[in-house]
Amino acid sequence: MSSIQCPTPHHEDEVVLLGHGAGGRLTAELLDRLVLPAVGGGTGPLEDAALLPGHPGLVMSTDSFVVSPLFFPGGDIGSLAVHGTVNDLAMRGAWPLALSVSLIVEEGLPMGELRSVMASLGKAAQDVGVPVVTGDTKVVGRGAADRLFINTTGVGQRHELLCPSAALARPGDVVLLSGPVGLHGTTVLSTREGLGFESDIASDTRPLHRLVRTLAPLGTAVHVLRDPTRGGLAAALNEIARDSSVAVEIEESAVPVPGAVASACDLLGLDPLVVANEGCLVAFVDAGAAEGALAALRSLPEGAQAVQIGEVLQQGSRGRVTVRTLVGARRIVEMPLGEQLPRIC
Length: 345
What we know:
Layout: H1 25-39, E1 50-51, E2 58-65, E3 71-72, E4 75-76, H2 77-90, E5 94-106, H3 111-128, E6 132-140, E7 148-158, E8 174-177, H4 183-193, H5 209-215, E9 222-226, H6 232-244, E10 248-251, H7 259-268, E11 282-285, H8 290-298, E12 307-312, E13 321-324, E14 330-332
Parallel strand pairs: 5-6, 10-13
Antiparallel strand pairs: 1-2, 2-7, 3-4, 5-7, 8-11, 8-12, 9-11, 10-12, 13-14
Helix pairs in contact: 2-3
């Protein structure tokens, strides 16, 4: 029996799973083992947007949107595409300068639906104040895509006082959250599956760049900014704890979870901490700047419900996130493994 060994997996037999696009551990494995080695990347933390080499202050981000359904309470794939890319730029302290938009359209999509999506996308860009300067359109055969996919790339100008990074959290930092969690993911899932919760909630999709600008006067006291999209708050906090090599603890009672989100999660067996958001941000700031940061966030409608939810511990297991529960116990907040809510962005 001692000579029996577990068979080594044959990589040529492996296939891509939905979970590889969920923003959790499977995504990290796909990036580390396949994508990044192929393009010569992998040094430093994986940020929401990248500083352009040789162009100080310029930031670039790209994203693809495959949300199903295309329309949902509070938004649609068009406005979501603009907001998602603008927000990724904002998480590096950047103001959006320009966007590109590329469409992959399935043959048979009603022209009226495409017209509605593009009108929403255009309005969202106009409201943000960012021009769409280039793009591309492709049409594929029936069954080769699911109705409509959108890719957006954004270029932004970083505020000279801000340079947040997922690797800059420090012991003693305060963890702030700009608004309630779980609205986007539960709304999209409920709409797609006909669960009925969408009558009580709506997606929180919205741009966050103005919210970030209110934090600019705090300068280097703002260490980390991250929007908890795929994988929710759990994934965002685990990425920050990993990249900064710190221990993070949050208070369960401090995390704002709307009642309808809590009910949906109870019904479906989901943890609100892993449900995607599209209209809130997490900020790690110096403890001495926490009061000023909260006041700044609350000065705008999109940050009116900002709260302090935790801190970076002075001691603890590096790279670990814990939550103090309502009964005073502690539990580990794991990085989500795979896809609990597919096609939500």
